[in-house]
Amino acid sequence: MHRVGVMRHFPAVISELGFDPDEACARAGVRRDALDNSDNPITLAAMGRLLSAGQEITGCAHIGLLVGMHGSLDCLGLVGAYMAQAPDVGTAIHDLTDHQHRYVRGALPYVLPMGQEIVFGYRVHETPVAAVEQICEGALALAYNLVRELCGLYPVEVLFACDEPQDRRPFSRAFGVPLRFNAELYGLAYPIGVLKRPVMGASAARREELRGEVEAYWAVDPPDVASRLRRHLAVVVLGGDQSLKAAAEALGLHPRVLNRRLNEEGTTFQRELADARFTLAGQLLAETNLSATVISETLGYADLSVFSRAFERWSGLPPTRWRKQAGAREAN
């Protein structure tokens, strides 16, 4: 589940490249008119198929980036309007990260402190989804535009959890700041002070007017506990407290209550933690050149052998063999 959001610009991007967007939509099995409104629902799988079809038809290896570059707060609908009236950038970003789970499942924006910087990042944690790289590159371009729109600030660096492309010039033109490929995550790095920057043109009165609409909108179809836990773990496996106690606190539950609710929903904390770790490990093995040692350290393992044994139990293959097979599948 996702909103069409910035993907409403997908047909225009295909047309700008000189190709027929109807053909891309037909290949992806998505109705063209489904992309007419940012608030329309679309699955992440369908979004991935669209971007894959767009890349195949146009030969453009950065189609997701081009789509994301068209993005703005307007693409976020009511949530974007609310963000635009926030007192500062930190509040605006948390308007999105704290509540996006109510209308988007399987992917999430997040804020991760890293020393004197914060990373405004994006992760697809649903599997399998095609074109994850393209989805995340588009999300970074959108996030770049959002922060510019909110306060005019540029990131100090853009991070990509994928191998360096043959031609990095489109990314340099899009962002105009240092780029780092083969990173552990997709994100924009900003000085930590960005969170206190006032939002340009914000109105406290207008924000108060929107509050009731936003609360009613976000009250629709709240996710179950397991879904909320998956979103929490998708971020903390990048660097954070992966304990049951920390997860329960983040979800506002007692650890015993969290365990009971998970059991009622047919899962366990340890199972969800393992899936979060190895979904990320699989993505990094398949899409980057990071060594298994670096990946194991990223996931919080002190010893490569422990990570390798755990990964083999999860996937049926040791990390190096899994990476080779993933490369072979992509080549085919």
Word description of this protein:
53% of the residues lie in helices and 9% in strands. It is built from 16 helices and seven strands. It folds into two domains: 61-196, no CATH class; 225-331, Orthogonal Bundle (Arc Repressor Mutant, subunit A). It is globular. With 332 residues, it is of the alpha+beta class. A five-stranded mixed sheet has the order 3-4-7-5-6, sandwiched between helices. It has a two-stranded antiparallel sheet with strand order 1-2. The mean pLDDT is 92. Residues 223-325 form the HTH araC/xylS-type domain.
Compose a concise summary of this entry.
The chain has helices spanning 10-16, 21-28, 44-58, 63-69, 77-83, 89-97, 132-151, 169-175, 204-218, 225-236, 244-251, 255-264, 269-287, 292-298, 304-315, 319-331, and strands at 2-3, 41-42, 107-114, 117-124, 157-159, 179-180, 186-191.
Could you name the key traits of this structure?
332 residues; Arc Repressor Mutant, subunit A; Homeodomain-like_sf; alpha+beta; single chain; 2 domains; two-stranded antiparallel ribbon; 16 helices
- Radius of gyration in whole Å, from Cα? 20 Å
Q: Helix amount, in percent?
A: 40-55%
Residue fraction in strands: 5-15%
Which regions have little confidence, pLDDT < 50, spanning 5+ residues?
A: none
Give the oligomer, counting copies of the same chain as homo and different chains as hetero: single chain
- Sketch the topology as an H/E string, one letter per element: EHHEHHHHEEHEHEEHHHHHHHH
Alpha-carbon distance between the termini?
28 Å
Strand order in the largest sheet: 3-4-7-5-6
